[in-house]
Amino acid sequence: MKTNFLNLILTFLRFSPQTSAFSLNSNSTFLDQQPSNVDAAFDNDTVKAAQNIFALLQETQFAADSEFKNFVEHVAGGNGEKSTVDAKTQQATGETKDVTVDKWINEFSNDLSNESEWQNDWATDAVNLSSLDDQIPRSQSWLRHLMDDNYSEYKFSKANSFLDHSTPFEEGLKRLQAHDIVNAVLLFEAAVQKEPNHVEAWLYLGITQSENEQDGPAICALKKCVELDPKNLQAYITLASCYANEMLTNEALDSLRKWLANNDKYSHLLSNRRSQITTTNEPRLIDELAFEELQELFLQAISLSNNPNDIDSDLQVCLGVLFHLPGDYDKAAECFNTAVLAKPDDALLWNKLGAALANGGQSEKAVDAYYHALTLSPGFVRARYNLGISCFNLSAYKQAVEHFLTALKQQSEGIGPQGTHVQMSENIWRTLAIAIGHLQRPDLENSVAKKDLSKLLTEFQIE
User: Fold this and answer.
1) φ and ψ at 322, to 5 degrees?
2) Contact (CB, 8 A) for 219 and 154
């Protein structure tokens, strides 16, 4: 309920005149898409979003009798100003009770054709949070509170038969080694419930959830990891990627800064200067100078090592994430390619390289990178999903559907002997609906709407 509620609010705010797009760079491909005037669409899309939110407000205590509730009720009645926003900020992901495949196709097919909006590790969710710190006016502290709550505490699986396992962490590592990502998640969950201060278990839980196309839970786990161990560098790297996936640019930059500040090799670079990027609970714009300062610091760190045989792959990854945030995908790809040279057996790096290539308009090269990732880790759900997106962008719709279904199947197999299915990604279901729509298969519309995975797997002969 809370996730759907948050998505609906974000959708609504994108059409409201109080919000504004943010760009670290005037040429940012995150937001600098071909502008689209939504004057004509306001009466339908904004009012509909407001009506959906208002309906949810009746079912929850959140914002009861608040200014926000009154404002939404006002717009839900058809009253509101109109605004012009860019094409990307028109994405909407809130679920309603009457979602149909046709609606999914109409809302998302145009967005899906833009590779930079879909390729992960960077744009995991169709909803473009686009640095919420920058879009949320200061007066809307209720939304900041809701967003913080959404990433504050890890929500454990309701049914987990591994809770009684004697050594869940060790078994989780074995499952991860065997590419059984979804059950590794359950085992790491069992490990941290058994030992709440188990730093490494929280780290692996966050990393594995990220591989499983679940950035929200990954962020919660990784935040707990750095709370217990503020100098855990791997947690900061993964957090930066997850925040970038969620379009939380402020948080991504802050995680990169903390990685640098806590790294004994490079922390001295910060000793004589005060970084302009600071953690804050108040919504605000990031000064472009702050981004440029962090970029300069990372480039200085790169210059400290001139030995081509001694590549700091983690440093290259951090710089790649940093370049990716404003849409400098070519430079990001160069960094990830360098990291891959140092760690050719790292599936996560191959996926990041694929994402940067795809976002830079090189889908065919991205496909090769994703296949490398899947060869190393066949259960890598995120890489499988990304491969499907690249196939879609190459108009290979049937292959895209097959990859999406495989990803959903892998997620659905995350069960123990007595457990229930783990949650499957709504994002994958939405993109699957779009791809099936392009196959002109109206006979499958009902199966997609009902999320009848078994029937769809049979239809496409996926075992």
Assistant:
1) -60, -45
2) no
**What is the residue type of 138?**
R
| Residue pair 45/37 in contact by the 8 Å Cβ criterion | no
**Which residue shows structure tokens 């069992």?**
190
Burial class (CB in 10 A: 0-12, 13-18, 19+), 131: buried
| DSSP secondary structure letter of residue 265 | T
User: What would the pLDDT profile of 347-390 be if each residue is shown by its tens digit?
Assistant: 999 999 999 999 999 999 999 999 999 999 998 999 999 999 99
Indicate if 173 and 92 belong to the same structural domain: no
pLDDT for 202 beyond 60: yes
Indicate the residue type of 97: K
d(CA 261, CA 251): 15
In a domain, 392, yes or no: yes
* Amino acid in the structure at residue 16: S
Q: Which of 123, 94, 336, 151 is nearest to 249 (CA)?
A: 123
Q: Which phi-psi region, left, alpha or beta, contains residue 246 (left: φ > 0; alpha: ψ -120 to 50)?
A: alpha
- Nearest of 406, 381, 436 to residue 210 by alpha carbon: 381
State the DSSP H helix or E strand holding residue 387, giving kind and residue range, or none if neither: helix 381-393
Domain of residue 312: give its range: 161-459
Residue 108 lies in a domain: no
Q: 44 phi and psi, to 5 degrees?
A: -90, -55
pTM of the model: 0.70
Residue 221 carries which side chain, given as an amino acid letter?
A
Joined together, the tokens standing for residue 366 give 């991205």
Residues of 156-171 as b/e, b for ≥16 C-beta within 10 angstroms? Answer: ebeebbbbebeebbeb
Q: What is the pLDDT of residues 2-32, one digit of tens each?
A: 444 554 444 444 434 333 333 333 233 322 2
